Amino acid sequence: MRGFSTSTTIFLKKMNIFIVSMDTRKNVRAIVYRKIDQEYQFLLLFAARKQYWQNPQGGLEDDEDLSAAAKRETHEETDLPKSNLEVMCQAAHSTSYNAVRLGRDIHVDLTAVAVRYTGPDLEIHLSEDEGHTDSKWCSYDEARSLLTLYPEQREAFEEVCKKLFDL
Predict the structure, then answer these.
(1) 3-state SS of the chain?
(2) Which of 90, 99, 134, 161 has minimal CB crowding within 10 Å?
(3) What's the pTM value of the predicted model, to 2 decimals?
(4) pLDDT band per the 50, 70, 90 thresholds, residue 2
């Protein structure tokens, strides 16, 4: 399965040993931003299936680095040109958590990175394959107020912004 590796964890419980095999997925989250009239704006996408706002994100492909994955995912989900996306890996924030994907328990290693959009004001063309139905450029405070479904979303957004902008 693309973007997954398998890890094994051993749990001890009352002298019984449980061996649990779980797929690990390496993900990147792109905190896409631009600066308009001295104000930072952040791009959020609305995921229709679960009814929540999120940053562009997805799994790393084989032998893909964070920068390439962040550009690819942002382009695939928004149609913004890769040539106008500048990845700022010095502002990365990493976390991990367990989740269910396609009915299977997985472990996710997530790294969020800042991605500066340097191009003209273009209309965002959402990918139907990704399940997004809306997009918006918003202020830091509005983005924080919209990133509510999963705690790691807001945490990653805040930490990346803190490192990059000293907010």
Answers:
(1) CCCEEEEEEEEEECCEEEEEEEEEEEEEEEEEEEEECCEEEEEEEEECCCCEEECCEEECCCCCCHHHHHHHHHHHHHCCCHHHEEEEEEEEEEEEEEEEECCEEEEEEEEEEEEEECCCCCCCCCCHHHCEEEEEEECHHHHHHHCCCCHHHHHHHHHHHHHHHCC
(2) 90
(3) 0.83
(4) low
